[in-house]
Amino acid sequence: MTVAAIAVEICLILLIWGTTEGLVQEANRRKAGTGADILIRPPTSSTNSRGVGLSHELIDEIQALAGVKLAVGAIVQMQSDTNTITGVEMEKFAQMAGGLDYLKGGPFKGRFDVVVDEVYAKHKEVTVGESLRLLNRDFNVVGIVETGKLSRIFVPLKTVQELTGDLGQLSQIYVKLTDSEQTQVMIADLKKRLPATPIFSMEEFISLFTAETKGMAKEFIAVVVGIAISVGFIVVLLAMYTAVLDRIREIGILKSLGASPFYIVRIFLQEAIVLTTLGVLVGIVFGHGAQFLIRSSFPLVMVQFLESHIAWAAAISFIGSILGTIYPAYRAASLDAVDALA
User: Fold this and answer.
1) Is 141 a residue whose pLDDT tops 90?
2) Can you spell out the DSSP letters for 198-250?
3) What's the pTM value of the predicted model, to 2 decimals?
4) What backbone phi and psi angles, to 5 degrees, belong to 88?
5) Nearest to 198 by CA among 207, 190, 210, 209
6) Are 143 and 115 in contact (CB under 8 A)?
7) What is the Cα–Cα distance from 143 to 124, expressed in whole angstroms?
8) How far is residue 126's CA from residue 129's CA, in Å, rounded to a whole number?
9) Whose CA is closest to 154, among 77, 59, 45, 65?
10) Has residue 339 got a pLDDT over 70?
11) Once rounded to an integer, what is the mean pLDDT over residues 154-182?
12) What gap in Å lies between CA 27 and CA 21, rounded to an integer?
């Protein structure tokens, strides 16, 4: 029972941390996969918010600047399942990203074509030639690409602009330079030209996104971890206290043979450490099993365990177990040998 409770504690902590880490890292991987050096966003946007507010005409202006290799605009719309639809000029984006690896099909051919990545295709159980309901109408799936480049769902830019009523508007502009070493110089120039517009290097934006996203989840994670620690503490406390009650006579015999209070305490602490070690090992196995099941059943949910997650989960579990053992061990050490044997 004690081992199982500790295993569940470890598994829960790993899944919470792993899910947060997995979602953040997957989002960052897709952003980095654009191949861009600079990201320009609307004046009213924040790191995690999306909207429109950039003129399509800015693309030509930025493209004409010395040192700019390519400027690509995109418009992003959130779906009800929290995934985003990205309207983009596919040919230009593929050029910026260093090409797209099509597993099936190919790029857009018509206004209402859609290209999805392999993860989304698996989630929706769709393939090339089938239809997909997006933006309140049916789109024809014409291509499935490897994941890791900007979005899971690609739709022609003008189609999204028309369907959302945002003609001539963009959510973001990606800029690729001929020399990435000149990124900060170009950002300074762009900020002079567009003083009210947020402009980031891709590295800076990814760092800000990671910090903000993890910060938003911090309180929730703290609550869940706190509950897990409390459960582990209470289970170990009850188990060790029950062990003391069941072994009163044995404790009395040890004390009558000269066992010191420290020796008695050490016995219970050693037992708690052994049980916790088993629970941690079982919990890690459970965690990886749960990770596999989640990936198989819910492809969009990314779970990524780091070595630091496992180390912290184990440390938290050991601390909770030791704290839960202190009172029962003290109670056992305080027993009078005569009373224990009576």
Assistant:
1) yes
2) -EEEHHHHHHHHHHHHHHHHHHHHHHHHHHHHHHHHHHHHHHHHHHHHHTHHH
3) 0.73
4) -155, 155
5) 190
6) yes
7) 14
8) 9
9) 77
10) no
11) 89
12) 10
